[in-house]
Amino acid sequence: MIRVLVIDDDEIAREAMCNVLVRAGYVVSELATPIGATSVIKRDGITVVALDINMPTINGDKLAKLLRENAHLSNLGIILVSGCDVEQLSAIGEKVGADGIVSKSKLHVALAPAVERAVAARAAKSGATSSVTTVSVPPPASSRRPR
Predict the structure, then answer these.
(1) Cα–Cα distance between 123 and 131 in angstroms, integer?
(2) Contact at 8 Å (CB) between 111 and 2?
(3) What angle do CA 93, 9, 107 make, to 5 degrees?
(4) 3-state secondary structure of 9
């Protein structure tokens, strides 16, 4: 089961990301700030983190770099999400070792496929075989954590 943690300080953007991911069949957790992200990742068995670049406490690219440097999280997929220019976002993603990038203007069509690619990329890097499948039936309402 793929578990995704969405981190974005903008409630509307966070809600949009969560809705897209729940409809795609993922179990979704969310945080309004990056504070405590590592604890949630470990506690909830998070597979992929989708995080905003621009946040007040710590920028998403800095958090992504910290997560990527944590040896215990080597199989964690990381997707950077931002409203900034796609070329700029791509350069940031490459610099911090993100598995994917998604423009906020393309969330509805690009986020779920980016999660699948991130899971496949992490599986390939760990030498495991990926068994990612797309779920066409929406999950039960209880699959999303209450705030």
Answers:
(1) 9
(2) no
(3) 55
(4) coil
pLDDT at site 118: 96
Count Cβ neighbours within 10 Å for each residue of 74-95 and write b for 16 or more, e otherwise: eebbbbbbbeeeeeebeebbee
Query: How many Cβ atoms sit within 10 Å of the Cβ of residue 41?
Result: 22
Q: Please give the structure tokens belonging to residue 60.
A: 């998403």
Q: Token digits for 83?
A: 């409203």
Does the predicted TM-score (pTM) go above 0.90? no
* Segment (H or E) for 82: strand 77-82
Give the single-character DSSP code of 75. Answer: T
Provide the percentage of residues in the chain whose pLDDT is more than 90: 76
CB 91 within 8 A of CB 98: no
In the DSSP assignment, the letter for residue 130 is: P
The CA distance from 132 to 122, in Å, is 11
pLDDT band at 56 (very low <50, low <70, confident <90, very high): confident
